[in-house]
Amino acid sequence: MKKMLVALGMLTVISLACGFFGGDKEVATKEPEVKQESSEEIGGVTTGHSSGTASEPKPALAEKVEEEVETPSNSGTSNAPRFFMDEFDGPLNTTDWALEEYYLLPEGVEEEDEEAQPVYSVEQERGALKFDLESPYLYLYHLYTPHEYEDVRIDFEVENKGVNTNNIGIVCRFTDYGWYEFIATSGGYYSIMRYYEDEDKELATGGIKSIKFGKDKKNVFTAICKGKTLIFIVNDVEIARVKDEEIVDPGYTGINVSSEAYVPVNVELNWLSISEP
User: Which residue ranges form the domains of the chain, and what is each CATH number?
Assistant: First the structure.
């Protein structure tokens, strides 16, 4: 088992009245503490344990924590393809994909309390990868672990299946000391983040004019990491291009689905592609 030390400054934002995926609530702005855990299973309802307390998050970087994270031992040894398109036919692939969870404890709730256990499911059926998050302030990272990438392009189509607030992210160069993340928020905004050791930085932020709002709407997200250049594309429209040279080593790639104050979050991925940029 490879041990990985992760420093996470979790980005949370205020949802607008017309949320990115149809949300119509506004999130309050108090500062939380974040707890990170590796999940115990993938698919079905998965629970974890946490310590610390949290109120609702503010629209900025939350407090940072450092935890040792168990990462899969199959990295670099699998016969899984390096570049591919997955249309999510068949059963959920728990060999090549690893799930990590970050979540918040409500104020006054102890770790051993049943209320402390985050509730969610990740299932694959009828040609879709389905994320159902029942707990607020829950952040799920779905990482492709057979290969590490320096330069990579990730595309996927996501469909909202409910009126809810949620954030969608794409991860590249997920390493021992940090990663890059492209985040589309429930308010129709984006951020390109560098989570890096003990100093996280927002590299770009703004609005997404090419987003399709509402229930059953489909959006295609694309992230490109190539050398120092990071590019974020939504529905074939480039919305941001920045340069950064802090994280240069190859790392895992994957996606993030997260909830805010109002749940449930129900989103489906119809296909996902990992390719050369």
Answer: 2-275 (2.60.120.200)
**Token pair recorded at residue 265:** 């979050």
Count of residues for the chain? 277
Residue-wise pLDDT tens digits, 147-184: 999 999 999 999 988 766 889 999 999 998 999 999 99
Contact, 13 vs 25, CB < 8 A?
no
Tell me what percent of the residues of the chain surpass a pLDDT of 90: 55
The pairing of beta strand 251-259 with beta strand 237-243? unpaired
In the numeric block, which tokens belong to residue 194? Answer: 């560098």
CB count in 10 Å sphere of residue 172: 27
Q: How far is CA 81 from CA 37, 67, 84, in A?
A: 28, 30, 6
Determine the Cα–Cα distance for residues 165 and 158; give it in Å rounded to an integer: 14
